[in-house]
Design brief:
Beta-galactosidase, Chain A, domain 5, mainly beta, about 375 residues, seven-stranded antiparallel β-sheet, nine-stranded antiparallel β-sheet, 4 helices
C-alpha cells in the first residue's frame, strides 16, 4: 500500500507540476467584455443597444434619411425619451461659397433621377418655389454644390463596418460622391465614424472628407444634432445655443418657433460675422407630449468651435426646426482632407453639457483601434 501510495503521489505531483508550468490563457479584462453592448445587423440596418442607449444606423431603405442615426431610433434608456426629428447628424451636400445661377441646370444626377443641383433664390421664377427657397436657405449668403448627390436621401445602399474595442462599439460608413459641378470632378470620399463608448448616454461622431477638388471655401453640410418636429412646442420646451448672446449662451423658449422664419433672420451664426465662441453646443429640451413635463436635453457638441463655418436654427413651414451646421469652409487643395468631431447625446442639465464639452473640446477627428477610441486634432 505504501509503495502504491508513493507512486500515486509521484504521479499526482508530476501532473500538478506540468499544469503549474503550463501557461494559462489570459482572462479577458472586464473592460474588454463586449456583453455590455448588443449589436444586431440585418440587410437593412445596424442596431446598437447598451444599458444607456439604443440607436439604428441604416444601410438602405431608411425610415427617413440614409445618413447618421435613423429617425426616432435614438432612445435614452434612463428616461425613455427619444429623438423627435428626422434623425441625428444627417449629412447633406459637399459645397462651397458662390452662386450656381449660370450652370445649375447642367448638374444632372448619374442615376437619372433628374437635376441634382442646389437651387438658389435667383434661379427661381415660380413664386411658391421662390418662397420655399427663401424660407429654407435664406438669401444673404450664396452657396453652391461642389459634388453630389445629396447624401441624406440620394445615397445608394452602403455596407458599414462594425468595429469593437475594449470599451466601445463603432460603426464606420464611407461613400464617394458620384457627380460634380461643371469644371469639377466627382469622387471625393465621405467617411462617418460613430463611436458608442461604454457607460455613456452619448455617442462620438466624426465626418471626414477626402477631397478630389480644390476650393477656396469648401464645407460639408449636416444637421447638428438634428431637426426638431413639433406642433406649437409639444415635443420640446426650449432651445439652447451656447455660442450666441455671450458666455452663458442663449436659451430660447419654444414659442419663438411657432411661426416660420428664414435662417438668416435670427438665431444664425457665421464665422466671418461672429466672435469665435468658447463652445459650440446646440440642444433642445425634450418635452413629453402627453403630460407636458420636461425630459432630458438632446444636445450636439461640436468639439472645435473654429471648425464651424455657418449654422442656423430656423423654423420652416410644416412644423420643423432646421438645425443645419456647415463645417470647415476654408481653402483646400485636391488630395487634402478635413473633418469635424461631435458628441451627441442626452444630458440632464446645461451644466452637464459644458462639463462634457470641457473634457473633450478642441478636437476635429476620431480614431479607433482594439485598445480603445480617441479624439484627435
Amino acid at each position: 500500500m505504501q509503495f502504491r501510495d508513493t507512486i500515486r503521489y509521484r504521479i499526482w505531483l508530476t501532473v500538478n507540476l506540468v499544469v503549474a508550468m503550463t501557461p494559462l490563457p489570459l482572462l479577458a479584462d472586464p473592460a474588454g467584455d463586449d456583453s455590455w453592448a448588443k449589436v444586431t445587423e440585418d440587410s437593412r440596418a445596424i442596431r446598437i443597444e447598451t444599458a444607456e442607449l439604443e440607436a439604428v444606423i441604416p444601410k438602405h431603405d431608411p425610415k427617413h434619411w440614409m445618413t447618421g442615426i435613423e429617425k426616432g431610433s435614438f432612445v435614452d434608456k434612463a428616461t425613455g425619451f427619444h429623438e423627435v426629428g428626422d434623425g441625428l447628424m444627417v449629412v447633406d451636400w459637399l459645397m462651397e461659397a458662390g452662386s450656381d445661377a449660370e450652370w445649375s441646370q447642367q448638374v444632372i444626377a448619374t442615376d437619372g433621377n433628374g437635376v441634382g443641383r442646389y437651387s438658389w433664390y435667383e434661379n427661381e421664377t415660380d413664386p411658391a418655389r421662390r418662397e420655399y427657397v427663401r424660407m429654407a436657405h435664406g438669401t444673404s449668403h450664396r452657396k453652391r454644390m461642389v459634388e453630389g448627390p445629396q447624401l441624406c436621401h440620394r445615397m445608394k445602399p452602403v455596407e458599414p463596418e462594425i468595429i469593437r474595442g475594449k470599451d466601445y462599439v463603432a460603426v464606420k460608413t464611407t461613400y464617394q460622391f458620384e457627380y460634380a459641378a461643371p469644371g469639377r470632378k466627382p469622387g471625393s470620399r465621405w467617411t462617418q465614424l460613430v463611436v458608442f463608448p461604454k457607460g455613456q448616454r452619448f455617442f462620438v461622431l466624426m465626418d471626414k472628407i477626402d477631397s478630389v477638388n480644390a476650393s477656396e471655401e469648401m464645407f460639408l453640410r449636416n444637421d447638428t444634432p438634428g431637426c426638431v418636429r413639433h406642433e406649437q412646442g409639444d415635443t420640446f420646451s426650449e432651445m439652447y445655443l451656447s455660442y450666441l448672446s455671450g458666455p452663458q449662451g442663449l436659451r430660447i423658449p419654444s414659442s419663438e418657433f411657432f411661426a416660420p422664419f428664414p435662417p438668416d433672420l435670427k438665431f444664425g451664426y457665421r464665422r466671418d460675422m461672429h466672435q469665435l465662441p468658447k463652445s459650440f453646443i446646440r440642444a433642445y429640451h425634450l418635452r413629453d407630449k402627453a403630460t407636458g413635463k420636461d425630459g432630458p436635453w438632446l444636445a450636439g457638441l461640436t468639439l472645435d468651435p473654429s471648425i464651424v463655418y455657418e449654422a442656423w436654427c430656423s423654423q420652416r413651414p410644416g412644423g420643423i426646426i432646421v438645425m443645419i451646421e456647415e463645417v470647415y469652409g476654408r481653402p483646400i487643395k485636391a488630395g487634402q482632407s478635413f473633418s469635424a468631431a461631435h458628441i451627441v447625446g442626452y444630458f440632464d442639465t446645461i451644466e452637464a453639457m459644458h462639463q462634457t464639452y470641457d473634457r473633450y473640446q478642441g478636437h476635429t477627428a476620431v480614431s479607433v483601434n482594439p485598445s480603445g477610441w480617441r479624439l484627435e486634432k
